[in-house]
Amino acid sequence: MGVASPMKAETSSQEVVSSPTATGSQGVAGPRVVIAPQVAKALRSGQPVVAMESTVYSSLGLPQPANLQAYAQATQAVESKGAVGVVTAVVEGEVKVGLTPEELSGVLGTSRSQDVVQPQGTATQLQSTAAPTQTAAAPSVRKVSLADLPIAVAQKWKLGATTVSASLAIAHQAGIKVFATGGIGGVHRENPDDVSADLLALSRYPVATVCSGAKAFLNLPATLERLETLGVAVVGYQTHQFPAFWSRESDLLVHHRVDTPSQAAEIVRQLGPAAVLFVVPPPADAALAWSEVATAAESALEEAKRQAVQGGAVTPFVLEQISQATGEKTLPANVALVANNAAVAAEIAVRLGDGQGP
Question: pTM, whole model, 2 decimals?
Answer without folding.
Answer: 0.87
